[in-house]
Design a protein that fits this description.
The chain is of the alpha+beta class. 45% of the residues lie in helices and 20% in strands. The protein has four helices and four strands, in the order αααββββα. A four-stranded antiparallel beta sheet has the order 1-2-3-4, covered by helices on one side. A hairpin with a 5-residue loop joins strand 2 and strand 3. The C terminus is likely disordered.
C-alpha cells in the first residue's frame, strides 16, 4: 500500500470509489435482510397451532355457558308449570272474591284459578251455618281429573242475602 503522500489523484479517486462501493453493498444487504427478516425468537408472535388451540378452548367455554343457561331455563319452566297448590292461597282468593261482591248468596261460588294455577279448576260452596252471617265455605281443587286439595273455612259475611237457613231460624 502506498503512503498517502505518494498517492496520485487517480489512486486516491479509485480508493474512494472502492470504499463507497463497499458501503453501498453493505447498506443494500442490511436493508434487504431487515425488510424480509424472520423473527429470531418464538416470543415475537403466536403460531397458528397456538391460535387454534386458544379458539377451541374459547368455544368450549362458550358452549358450556350456553348449555348451562338452556338447562336452567328448562328447569325454571318445569317448576313454573307444576306448582304445588297452596290451600291458604286458594282460600284467600275465595275470600277476596266474596268480600268484593255486593250481594252474596248461598250456593256455588265461581273462582278463577287459571292465572295462578294453569289447568286447575276450583269448586266452592257457601253455606250459612248461623243467623248472624257466619258461613262455611267448602272448596275442592282439581287438576284435570285428579283431586289436588279439599278443605273448608269459616267466614263472616254480613251482606249475605236472606233466605235459606236464616229465614227458618227463630228470632227472639
Amino acid at each position: 500500500m502506498k503512503s498517502l503522500a505518494r498517492m496520485t489523484n487517480d489512486d486516491w479517486r479509485r480508493k474512494v470509489r472502492q470504499s463507497q462501493a463497499r458501503c453501498a453493498t453493505a447498506l443494500r444487504a442490511k436493508t434487504f435482510h431487515s425488510a424480509f427478516a424472520i423473527p429470531h425468537s418464538r416470543q415475537d408472535a403466536f403460531t397458528l397451532l397456538e391460535v387454534m388451540i386458544a379458539v377451541g378452548i374459547l368455544f368450549m367455554c362458550l358452549f358450556a355457558v350456553l348449555a348451562l343457561t338452556s338447562n336452567s331455563l328448562t328447569s325454571a319452566r318445569k317448576l313454573q308449570q307444576h306448582r304445588t297448590i297452596d290451600t291458604g292461597t286458594v282460600a284467600g282468593m275465595i275470600y277476596v272474591q266474596l268480600v268484593n261482591t255486593n250481594q252474596v248468596a248461598e250456593g256455588s261460588v265461581d273462582v278463577d284459578l287459571e292465572e295462578m294455577y294453569p289447568g286447575c279448576k276450583c269448586d266452592a260452596d257457601l253455606t250459612q251455618i248461623a243467623s248472624n252471617g257466619l258461613c262455611q265455605i267448602d272448596f275442592l281443587v282439581q287438576r284435570g281429573q285428579h283431586l289436588e286439595v279439599q278443605a273448608h273455612f269459616l267466614m263472616y259475611v254480613p251482606n249475605l242475602k236472606q233466605g235459606g237457613i236464616s229465614s227458618t231460624l227463630r228470632t227472639h
